[in-house]
């Protein structure tokens, strides 16, 4: 049971969790690139952000409650996720490269190619759950949270706060940059950049898996 006397410790744990979460999550990786592109297309952005925030929250708290033990019981699970991630990122890199090389039209054309809500949500879930870096970040948060003893859930809440803040930045940023993507060349640059990022991540994961 928390009391007024425990509030400073809870706030410290929450602030530490927020800072840690921002340090871990605030990077432009596979999930971030996917969200930015969907936001620029105005394709189910709020649903995607809500799903990503919910997944982050569930697994952050699960890590504090014992997800690390599950990973130690099933060591093969980490490797399976890694290779699924390599395949998924490689496929998306190829799709992005194809759009960069052969797609025509700007923002209006992209909006005509908007995927269904189900497809967009499946993509968001895939970029989150099939990303080994996501699991590594979650495990780090869980490990650090236990250093705060009774305030560990406050630390987890701080990490969730960081996740929501970063997702909000991605969502708002994609809307602010949308007018620039009326030019077809901007889409080709974006898709080319995404293809490079995805391919680099896939190669890096594959090297880690073979090491």
TrEMBL record:
Keyword Nucleotide-binding set for record: no
Compartment(s): Cell membrane
Membrane disposition: Multi-pass membrane protein
Alphabetical UniProt keywords: Cell membrane, Membrane, Transmembrane, Transmembrane helix
Bilayer-crossing regions: 12-36, 48-67, 73-94, 119-141, 153-177, 189-206
GO molecular function annotation: amino acid transmembrane transporter activity
Pfam families from the UniProt entry: LysE
Classification via InterPro entries: LeuE-type
GO cellular component: plasma membrane
Name assigned to this protein: Arginine exporter protein argO
Organism: Bordetella petrii (strain ATCC BAA-461 / DSM 12804 / CCUG 43448 / CIP 107267 / Se-1111R)
């Amino acid at each position: 049971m928390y009391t007024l006397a425990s509030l400073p410790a809870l706030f410290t744990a929450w602030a530490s969790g927020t800072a840690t979460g921002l340090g871990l999550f605030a990077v432009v990786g596979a999930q971030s690139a996917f969200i930015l592109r969907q936001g620029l297309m105005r394709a189910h952005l709020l649903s995607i952000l809500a799903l990503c925030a919910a997944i982050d929250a569930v697994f952050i708290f699960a890590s504090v409650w014992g997800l690390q033990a599950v990973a130690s019981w099933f060591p093969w699970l980490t490797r399976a996720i890694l290779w699924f991630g390599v395949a998924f990122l490689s496929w998306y890199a190829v799709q992005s490269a194809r759009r960069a090389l052969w797609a025509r039209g700007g923002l209006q054309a992209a909006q005509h190619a908007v995927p269904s809500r189900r497809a967009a949500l499946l993509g968001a879930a895939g970029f989150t759950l099939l990303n080994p870096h996501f699991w590594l970040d979650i495990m780090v948060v869980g490990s650090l949270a236990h250093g705060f003893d009774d305030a560990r859930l406050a630390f987890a809440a701080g990490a969730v706060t960081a996740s929501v803040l970063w997702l909000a930045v991605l969502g708002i940023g994609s809307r602010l940059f949308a007018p620039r993507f009326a030019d077809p060349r901007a889409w080709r640059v974006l898709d080319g950049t995404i293809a490079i990022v995805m391919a680099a991540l896939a190669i890096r994961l594959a090297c880690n898996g073979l090491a």
